[in-house]
Amino acid sequence: MVDELAAEKRRVEANKKYLGKASLREAGLSEARLNGALMKEADLVRADLAGANLQEADLSRADLFQADLRNANLRGANLSKANLSEANLSGANLTGAILGKTDLTAAILENTVCDIADFRQAILYEAEFDSASLRGANLRKVDFSKSNLRNSHLEGADLRRANFDGAHLEGINLSKADLSGATFHGANLTGAYLSGANLNKTVFTEANLAGAVFRYALNMTPEQMQSAHMDETTKIPQHIKDKPILGTEC
Prior knowledge:
The protein is mostly loops and about 250 residues long. The protein is about 5% helix and about 0% strand.
């Protein structure tokens, strides 16, 4: 059985340029060398790709439902419009990857590196991003509702019109991120760091901002803080402190 699995993996590696629409459901491809592979629309449901080298591979529109991609190398890979719902990408490297309109519902991305990746309009509902790095990533219009991004790094990320409603964002670093038009309705931002972030028309309705740091935040207004939950540890710009914020809990 072991020999058969090894032979199958070698066959897939040898034909990596011809795997478009391939049926690889539940395939054993852990640590496979598939860099530059052409796997557009491939069926990789529940496939074992743990530790695989998929650098710059084309996985656009591929079905990776519940696939195991732990510690995989996906640098520069094209995963646009792929189905990665419930997939496990813990520890994977997605630096510079393309994930536009990708479905990552309930996916696990703990400790992943997604710096400068393109997630535009991706679905990240209930995804687990704890301690992930998304520095400089394009996350415009991304749905992060009810996701976990505790202690994650999103410095300088483009988060215009992103949805963080009900998300767990304790200890997140959003310094210098563009949060124009983003919503944080009911989100937990306890201890979050938003220094220098662009908060133009950002919504914090019912958000928990205890211990959050807003120093040097841009385009911040007292009206944005209405009905947000703050305490004496919340650090806000002086011009906001000098004006009454109706409806807040301090």
